[in-house]
Design brief:
Structural class: alpha+beta
Strand content: 25-35%
CATH class: Mainly Beta
Radius of gyration: 22 Å
CATH topology: Immunoglobulin-like
Helix content: 10-25%
Number of domains: 1
Order of helices and strands: HEEEEEEEEEHEHEEEEEEEE
CATH superfamily: Carboxypeptidase-like, regulatory domain
Largest sheet: 6 strands, mixed
Number of strands: 18
Amino acid sequence: MHVRFILALAVVTALTSCQANSTTTATPATHFRGVAYTFNTPKPIAGATISVAELPQFTTVTDANGYYDLSVEVTASSQKVTPFIVKADFHTIYLQTFTLHPGDPDLANVHFQTPDEGTFVLLSTLVGVGPKTTQCQVVTTVSDKAIQGLTYEQFRDHGAHGVSGVQASATPTLPKPIYFNANVVPDAKLTESSDDGGILWINVPDGEYTLSATHSTRKFAEVTVTCAPNRIVNANPPWGLHEIP
């Protein structure tokens, strides 16, 4: 009886210790949630793989409606996180680079605006880059505060998301960007944004950049993007260069 009691006590102690260790070492996850959809259309992209460039062990797949929920656990005090999407017949797109800390709140409406390969070839040809370039290209949108907090369906049905009359720049300094016109076409003759809000920097050297936007009466959040060879970055709305309410 005495031996059985000692063994039982040892088992209980071991289980309690394991539970305590599990509790103290658990890392709260931050969830990225949003929808992957086709560039310039509301069509969702099902079956796409969403991953993190810096932490490839975290991955998920979009559902039939293009929705995804990516859980990311951060153990470092500060961690760069750049989500990206991969899907056959679509061009791989990277989002802006977020900085996460352990226990940070979840991020909603982190959408992927993703061109199919045909559209990518057309757009890259229009701006004189060519579809086989190995250099980084960066796209973002200066977006209206009215689209903040919308459901995807509301966001989709809102119409143009951009703010006209904005000039954008990057740090470290890059050449002046190309602005998209109201027909969602890159137009090198424009010197500021149209209602579309699209902005493009071509052939960007590798590295990390901070994008900023200037308007006579409105303020916009800065955005961090990370360039690497063969990378297309689209810091798209409602994130990207979004208006600060």
